[in-house]
Amino acid sequence: MNQISIIGAGIGGLTLGNVLKQHHLDFTIYESAAKIKPVGAGIMMAVNAMQIFETLGLKEKIENRGNKIHGIFITDEKLKTISTTNILALEQKFNSCNVAIHRAELQSILAENLGFENIQLNHSLQQIQKEKNYLLEFENGFKTESEIIFGADGIHSKVRNQIFGNGKIRNAGQKCWRGLTDFNLPEKYNHHALEIWGKGKRFGFVKISDKKVYWYALINENKFKENLNLIETFGDFDSLVLEILEATKQENIILNDIIDLTPIPKWCTENLCLIGDAAHATTPNMGQGACQSIEDAYVIGKLLEKNQDLNSVFEEFQNIRRKKVDTIVKNSWTIGTISQWEKGNQLRNFLMRTIPENLNQKMVEKILKLEI
Ligand SMILES: Cc1cc2nc3c(=O)[nH]c(=O)nc-3n(C[C@H](O)[C@H](O)[C@H](O)COP(=O)(O)OP(=O)(O)OC[C@H]3O[C@@H](n4cnc5c(N)ncnc54)[C@H](O)[C@@H]3O)c2cc1C
């Protein structure tokens, strides 16, 4: 019998484990995978997440194993700037940097710090039922009971499906490739992230370590076909894009649909709480999905500092987090739609350029500021 079980050792579940450890609480994390081996891709940890990692004593480790990013640029196909987010001023304000890092590096830092003895790999939750406690049954035949459950099992969450019986997945109608390659970017891009907007397609890249570059490419689903040639598809983009694509081995490329979760009314019920993508998965257009799961864990920790009653912590957690998360899900969906326009792109780019930089900074600041 466990006091606390976390289902899922993704970024959300692992961060929550680190937070509970700080509070000297006993917990077990159950993870379906046989290894902590996330998809081979990079990820951006924005200033909000990095402030939280500082409270866990992990900021420097993550900075050292990733790459600090001081500016985010949206450009047209020929790398002419459409919009700039200069993070330097915000980095100073919040005393943290944006860091681009390999997902595997980040998850291994989180797992090592909380201790592998607290993680049960190869435990895929099959069934969860509420009696006096929660009864958990795993695909490997293992059964146990737990008083408290955290569902950190991602967008297709079994905890959410079986306990709340809701969660409609929305498909954005976009295909997304992610790749990793050894590549020497021009020096001016060493600490910049670029997202290049074309007609019904986008390409983003960022350096994640001395040699490695992480990139992503999106096209509208109506242009998708099996074995589509990315180099041809992005043939009208700057030659740097084509060079990055040419340098990437096929086995280092993954393909996904872009999806999110229609907001669900409640994230918690008696002795159970959903966090991260299980509760509020967003499209990746603002680079905030994982950062928001990290904020979830942080807010739960902050509330535990003054209140040991988990059920009231869960209610308060949802009240605090709801507005920010819903706004991100909504805005991210809108950005995803605008960025993939197939017509009127010149006008779009013109209008984007007229948005004053300080307005953009203000919107970003709202996201980077922790709520508690
Ligand atoms: C293309 C793309 C780019 C992105 N880029 C960024 C970015 O730059 N920055 C950012 O902040 N976010 C980004 N995100 C979003 C981010 O990946 C997710 O929001 C984040 O991974 C959510 O973390 P999580 O722990 O909630 O869920 P997940 O990462 O989905 O983790 C869930 C874990 O639960 C496990 N699990 C699932 N079912 C079971 C079960 N039945 N039993 C046991 N274990 C189970 C899974 O194996 C997994 O390990 C991106 C997403 C995409 C698709």
From TrEMBL:
Record's keyword annotation contains Magnesium: no
Record's keyword terms, sorted: Monooxygenase, Oxidoreductase
Regions crossing the membrane: none
Lineage: superkingdom: Bacteria
InterPro entries documented for this protein: FAD-bd, FAD-dep_Monooxygenase_BioMet, FAD/NAD-bd_sf
GO MF, one example: FAD binding
Signal peptide (from-to): none
FAD-binding domain mapped to chain residues: 3-163, 266-305
Pfam families for the chain: FAD_binding_3
Tagged with keyword Oxidoreductase: yes
Alphabetized PANTHER family for the sequence: MONOOXYGENASE (PTHR13789), PUTATIVE (AFU_ORTHOLOGUE AFUA_6G14510)-RELATED (PTHR13789:SF309)
Stated name of the protein: FAD-dependent monooxygenase
Taxonomic source organism: Chryseobacterium turcicum
